[in-house]
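Hi R.,

Here's the chain you asked about this morning:
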Amino acid sequence: GMQKLLVWNERRDLLPLSISDVVYCETVEEKTFVYTERGMYQTALTLAELEERWAATGLLRCGKSCVVNLYAIRRLRSCGAGRIEAALSTGEKIMISRHYAPALREKLGM
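And here is the predicted structure, written out as tokens:
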């Protein structure tokens, strides 16, 4: 089956996560956080590793410190200067920077 992403919660319980459960990931002070509809976790992988390993299943770089799951995007809005705001399945909004917007448009066939 699909390779699971190993994450841990604030109690340090290790959990295997399906990539389809990932909404987005971000790096804060060299730590990688994984956001799902159920909560936030941490992983030992870098954003580059996440993107490389699961690009085929929808993980896409959207900023220097952010990777988004394309399947979690509910709405997109153009924000000028080439940036795109993405509304996610959790209700959160993230900004796709100008540098990464073309790849997103291409992946979504925009």
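One quick note: The first helix runs from residue 47 to 54.

Cheers,
M.
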